[in-house]
């Protein structure tokens, strides 16, 4: 099994290219208006063209209307959509008609009926994140060993120094990082990005049978 590596909060073509060159499998572009890392659809689209189709481009949304999500996703030419917030399974189903979905959950969501319904939909993959996305605080991985969903991604306070341990404990399908890869909000630290990708890839070789 290969752990995929996503670098989120990309706000420029320059940082997109650096992350792709560092070995990132996916880039996250945040379209939630309240985010410090808000990016325009035009920049996200240009960044996607610059890195090429081998790197997934994920549009990140928080409690936004379905029409807005679909409009921005089309304008930015994203290859997947990441959904935060208490949206219904019907909403998730509608988005999944057009794009693969990363459905973000908090530890407290695990086992709730609405979350389980959404995760049962075709094209929907769970991602477990901290209560405050982008806040830099990791989850208690040991406490999640039994409840961590199959094929789920992991986010929340990940960086070069702890991603290997997170992978060893939970064996996620993918890992996602933002704040610990920046020199300031929205601006990537290329050395941290490289170190994060290398640490995740190195942990993968140790944690998964070949």
Automatic annotation (TrEMBL):
Keywords for the protein's UniProt record, in alphabetical order: Amino-acid biosynthesis, Aromatic amino acid biosynthesis, Isomerase, Tryptophan biosynthesis
Domain N-(5'phosphoribosyl) anthranilate isomerase (PRAI) residues, every copy: 5-199
The protein, known as: N-(5'-phosphoribosyl)anthranilate isomerase
Pathway: Amino-acid biosynthesis; L-tryptophan biosynthesis; L-tryptophan from chorismate: step 3/5
Entries under SUPFAM superfamilies matching the protein: Ribulose-phoshate binding barrel (SSF51366)
Gene behind this protein: trpF
Family classification: Belongs to the TrpF family.
E.C. number: 5.3.1.24
Species annotation: Deinococcus hopiensis KR-140
């Amino acid at each position: 099994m290969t752990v995929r590596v996503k670098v989120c909060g990309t706000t420029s073509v320059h940082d997109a290219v650096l992350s792709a060159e560092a070995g990132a499998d996916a880039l996250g572009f945040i379209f939630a208006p309240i985010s410090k890392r808000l990016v325009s659809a035009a920049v996200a689209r240009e960044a996607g063209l610059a890195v090429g189709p081998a790197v997934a481009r994920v549009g990140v949304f928080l409690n936004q209307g379905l029409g807005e999500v679909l409009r921005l996703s089309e304008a930015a030419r994203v290859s997947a959509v990441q959904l935060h917030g208490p949206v219904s399974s019907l909403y998730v189903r509608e988005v999944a008609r057009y794009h693969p979905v990363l459905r973000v959950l908090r530890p407290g969501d695990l086992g709730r009926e609405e979350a389980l319904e959404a995760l049962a939909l075709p094209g929907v993959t769970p991602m477990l994140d901290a209560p405050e996305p982008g806040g830099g605080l990791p989850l208690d991985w040991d406490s999640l060993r039994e409840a961590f969903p199959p094929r789920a991604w992991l986010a929340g306070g990940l960086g070069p120094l702890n991603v290997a341990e997170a992978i060893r404990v939970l064996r996620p399908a993918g890992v996602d990082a933002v704040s610990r890869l920046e020199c300031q909000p929205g601006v990537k630290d290329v050395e941290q990005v490289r170190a994060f990708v290398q640490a995740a890839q190195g942990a993968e070789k140790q944690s998964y049978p070949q």
